[in-house]
């Protein structure tokens, strides 16, 4: 459920934070770490001066010491060698190995009974805590009245979705969450709507965001990162087998359960391809993790997820993404041109895997060959790992995010900035924030038009006016169009909000 939101070029933000605070640029006021086609900004609170420092030439961390970085200039050779070693491996695993069948994924699109026979409404849940907020959504920890079960409930404003041009992303997330079942992907339990709001009820991940723990720990030992990366590899392999590009892998979107296992969350930027050889063209993602082919608008496919995994792996081991800079344009230039720098204390196996994943040519990138994810699974970094046992969740995680005596509804891994807020279903405050941003944008656009003396018919703020109309409820007749506009969310009348 992600962040102070990731951005796509098609409109506003969709992703939203599930646990910790917004990422900000050290010493750069309040610019958020988002990416847009026009102006890309960046931020990261864990990269502030007390933890680590950066300059425009090199990276340094307080712990562990990182003497002489190793320069890897021939990343393509790494990927080619790994692909050659992956022949006849038997991977990727079949649908049967995942416990899936075609029938299991053919559910009714308009049902709230995703994992059972009971229809639910908002009245079936008691709000316990606020655990995340975004630009037009928030996440509550809720308890189901009849069973006492704990869930995470993501609430989205319909008006804000339309105003921010996020309907397609919202419905894509709901569809993907319903139809993709995997041990390392967060599970959707119910989806329903009232006249003004959408509700996604998901498994509660008591470990919170991996980003929360990265801020606290600074970095992780390779033994821990090995399990994290292996579980993420299985999740991405499964998505790719279903023609889904994840497109927003980052520590904010990797959740931990109470046992320390990862679950991918927030599919608002994901893309379902119609065919294997199709390419997506939308400029979308979070800047630190953007693959070169996304930055250059060459079209992209599944390989961008492996690039993001290489970036994430380097960040978890060292504390920083490998091409990080406070200057966004410089960071993107580094992604396109700079040599990969890794500290010499990092193991050769880890360096090799990161270099293979960060191969600039997507056709030669590790994981992009005929063997797919097997090229990654057979890499020496994962030598000796029992992948079948990992898929069955039989391998313990070396990282424990919770105290053993923590209660099922513990929110100790969630930012107090959120948990201190009263947990309510009301979304008026979130809608007003969207309105304020739109009003500010409309004012700036009117000033720009006035400065150029452009005729009224060519005023560029027409789309902003339409967005404000949507926020006021003028764009859709909510009592008659909910079934068409938000098909897939069971309608529960009786609640205006």
Automatic annotation (TrEMBL):
What is the name listed in the Swiss-Prot or TrEMBL entry for this protein? non-specific serine/threonine protein kinase
InterPro entries to which the protein is assigned, alphabetical = AGC-kinase_C (IPR000961), Kinase-like_dom_sf (IPR011009), Prot_kinase_dom (IPR000719), Protein_kinase_ATP_BS (IPR017441), Ser/Thr_kinase_AS (IPR008271), STKc_AGC (IPR045270)
Binding residue positions for ATP: 154
GO molecular-function term, one example from the UniProt record: protein serine/threonine kinase activity
| Chain coiled-coil ranges | none
The record places domain Protein kinase at 125-382
Q: Tell me which PANTHER family the record gives.
A: RIBOSOMAL PROTEIN S6 KINASE
What reaction does this catalyse?
L-threonyl-[protein] + ATP = O-phospho-L-threonyl-[protein] + ADP + H(+); L-seryl-[protein] + ATP = O-phospho-L-seryl-[protein] + ADP + H(+)
Please give the CDD domains that the UniProt record associates with this protein. STKc_AGC
E.C. number(s) listed in UniProt: 2.7.11.1
Q: Where is the composition biased (Low complexity)?
A: 1-24
């Amino acid at each position: 459920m992600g962040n102070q939101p990731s951005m796509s070029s098609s409109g506003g933000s969709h992703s939203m934070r599930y646990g910790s605070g917004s990422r900000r640029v050290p010493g750069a006021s309040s610019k958020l770490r988002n990416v847009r086609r026009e102006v890309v900004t960046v931020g990261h609170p864990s990269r502030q001066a007390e933890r680590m420092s950066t300059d425009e030439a090199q990276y340094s961390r307080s712990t562990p010491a990182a003497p002489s970085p190793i320069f890897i200039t021939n990343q393509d050779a790494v990927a080619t060698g790994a692909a050659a070693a992956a022949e006849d491996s038997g991977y990727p695993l079949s649908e049967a190995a995942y416990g899936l069948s075609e029938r299991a994924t053919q559910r009714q699109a308009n049902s709230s009974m995703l994992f059972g026979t009971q229809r639910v409404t908002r009245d079936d849940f008691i709000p316990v805590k606020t655990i995340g907020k975004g630009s037009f959504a928030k996440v509550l920890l809720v308890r189901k009245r009849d069973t006492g079960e704990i869930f995470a409930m993501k609430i989205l404003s319909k008006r804000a979705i339309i105003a921010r041009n996020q309907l397609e992303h919202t419905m894509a997330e709901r569809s993907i969450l319903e139809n993709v079942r995997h041990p390392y992907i967060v599970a959707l339990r119910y989806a329903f709507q009232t006249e003004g709001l959408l509700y996604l009820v998901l498994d509660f991940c008591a470990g919170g965001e991996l980003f929360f723990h990265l801020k606290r720990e600074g970095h992780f030992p390779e033994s821990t990162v090995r399990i994290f990366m292996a579980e993420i590899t299985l999740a991405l392999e499964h998505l790719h087998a279903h023609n889904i590009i994840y497109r927003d892998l980052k520590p904010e979107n990797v959740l931990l359960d109470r046992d320390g296992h990862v679950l991918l969350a927030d599919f608002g930027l994901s893309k379902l391809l119609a065919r294997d050889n199709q390419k997506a063209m939308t400029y979308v993602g979070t800047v630190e993790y953007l693959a070169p082919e996304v930055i250059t608008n060459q079209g992209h496919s599944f390989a961008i997820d492996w690039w993001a995994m290489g970036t994430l792996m380097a960040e978890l081991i060292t504390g920083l993404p490998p091409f990080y800079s406070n200057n966004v344009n410089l960071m993107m230039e580094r992604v396109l041109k700079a040599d990969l720098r890794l500290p010499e204390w990092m193991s050769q196996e880890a360096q090799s895997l990161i270099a293979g994943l960060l191969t600039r040519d997507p056709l030669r990138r590790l994981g992009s060959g005929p063997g797919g994810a097997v090229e990654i699974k057979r890499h020496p970094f994962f030598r000796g790992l029992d992948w079948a046992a990992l898929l069955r969740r039989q391998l313990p995680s070396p990282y424990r995010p919770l105290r053993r005596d923590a209660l099922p509804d513990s929110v100790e891994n969630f930012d107090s900035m959120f948990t201190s807020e009263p947990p309510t279903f009301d979304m008026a405050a979130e809608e007003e924030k969207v309105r304020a941003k739109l009003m500010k944008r409309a004012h700036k656009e009117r000033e720009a038009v006035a400065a150029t003396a452009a005729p009224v018919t060519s005023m560029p703020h027409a789309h902003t006016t339409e967005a404000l109309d949507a926020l006021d409820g003028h764009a859709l007749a909510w009592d008659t169009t909910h079934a068409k506009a938000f098909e897939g969310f069971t309608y529960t009348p009786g609640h205006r909000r």
